[in-house]
Amino acid sequence: MGGDMIIAAQSGGSGAFNLLLLLAIPLVFYFLLIRPQSKRRKEQLQMQNAIEPGVQVLTTSGIRATVVDVDDDGVVLEIADGVEVRFVKQAVMQIIKDEEAEDLDDDNEEDEDGDDDRVDLAKSDDAEDEGAEDEDGKADETAEADEPESEPKGRSKVKATGKSGA
Q1: Contact, 56 vs 46, CB < 8 A?
Q2: What is the distance between the alpha carbons of residues 76 and 67, in angstroms, rounded to a whole number?
Q3: What is the per-residue pLDDT across 28-42, written as a single tens digit (0 to 9) for each?
Q4: How far apart are CA 119 and CA 84, in angstroms?
Q5: Three-class SS of residue 39?
Q6: pTM confidence score
Q7: CB hemisphere CA count around 32 (13 angstroms)
Q8: How far apart (Å, rounded) are the C-alpha atoms in residues 17 and 21?
Q9: pLDDT, tens digit (0-9, with 9 covering 90-100), for 115-165
Q10: Per residue in 109-142, is it b (16+ CB within 10 Å) or e — as a string?
Q11: Where are the transmembrane segments (predicted)?
Q12: Beta-carbon-side half-sphere exposure of residue 98 (alpha carbons within 13 Å)
């Protein structure tokens, strides 16, 4: 039994390697996880402190808005004409540059004007006649004329006209 311990002591002589490995793991964690996260946090704080009225921003919930007022810990954002909402500064994810905002607005205008891309999902008379027969070749008389046809509804827009009382 004493001979086994001597063999184990001779083969485990890489104490320096174990020490190096023990020191390398925290360094890897620091450079791959902790340092980049703290760097992003500093950049985010600088961006949030640089917010000023009139700037286009994007919140963490995906709302694009214009900054109206800046307080110590909060901002007042205008999300539509006459609709102002108060957020904490941490809710601002990024400041949108003017070129990006104009590109996004151009895309929205094309979507609103582009009715040519619509697909008509209304049933045609031919499709109703084919679907009205069952496997015997007889027409299904109960479902034909009892129900009125439903028409597809167009796009509707809601416009905010004033501030709410709340």
Answers
A1: no
A2: 6
A3: 999 999 999 999 999
A4: 37
A5: helix
A6: 0.46
A7: 6
A8: 6
A9: 566 676 777 665 555 554 555 555 555 555 566 666 656 665 656 666 655
A10: eeeeeeeeeeeeeeeeeeeeeeeeeeeeeeeeee
A11: 15-34
A12: 1
